[in-house]
Amino acid sequence: MVSAAKAQIIITTPYEFSVGVSGGTTFSSVSFSPKVEQTMLMGTTFGVTGRMTMGEYVGLQLEINYAQQGWNEFFEITEEPENAGTDYKYARHLDYLQIPFYTHIQFGGKKVKGFINAGPQFGYLISESTDENLGAQPAMVSAQHNMPVEKKFEWGISGGAGIEIRTGIGYFLLEGRYFYSFGDIYSTKVKDNFSKASSQAITAKISYLKPF
């Protein structure tokens, strides 16, 4: 008889590492207070992804991405004669290097899985540019038009969900995400122009991962 003291039970958790690339489209805005009327600004994003799954359902995912964000202002005005036919526009393009770190939860079959990602995201503004046409009306120029971004570091919460298809040549993922910044791009003290100026973005992206 084998004694219980000599019996050994070894429980192993299967780990899987995968790396790959991603690309997609961003739809972003900035939440200003006082409010600035906007429509979503469309941009692009791409980057690299590393993922480690531990067992069947849970993993960790780290990414390094380039992302275009910013805001696109909406104008509803009565044209003056000197501005007849003017197509008013003002968009600020903000280019970020972003690092999201996710808890990854997956479920489903062997070939097709659903998944949820959630976690913190950090970013740094690497460049900014403006696309504008405000005509000849000085009243169209607002405070933010002449203000470069004052706080280049951003941080917030990001999360999303999607579907993953596993094939013999790798994993293909389709995902939608939302990011909300807890920081502001401008100073928001009592003496400043805004009491709030935080970024938010929706992202639709596809990814390819190769398991090892």
Write the layout of secondary structure elements.
Elements: E1 15-33, E2 38-39, E3 41-54, E4 58-73, E5 89-108, E6 112-133, E7 153-167, E8 170-181, E9 196-211
Question: Could you characterize what this model shows?
Answer:
The protein has 212 residues and is mainly beta. It has a single domain (20-211), classed as Beta Barrel (Porin), CATH 2.40.160. Helices cover 0% and strands 64% of the residues. It contains no helices and nine strands. The chain has strands spanning 15-33, 38-39, 41-54, 58-73, 89-108, 112-133, 153-167, 170-181, 196-211. It has an eight-stranded antiparallel barrel with strand order 1-3-4-5-6-7-8-9. Strand 7 (153-167) and strand 8 (170-181) form a beta hairpin. It starts with 14 loop residues before the first strand and ends with a strand. The relative contact order is 0.22.
Query: What structural category arises from helix and sheet content?
Result: mainly beta
State the order of secondary-structure elements, H for helix, E for strand: EEEEEEEEE
Largest sheet: 8 strands, antiparallel, barrel
**Number of DSSP-assigned strands:** 9
Number of helices: 0
Shape: elongated
What is the typical, i.e. mean, pLDDT? 90
The name of the CATH topology is Porin
Structure characteristics:
212 residues; 64% strand; 8-stranded antiparallel beta barrel; mainly beta; 9 strands
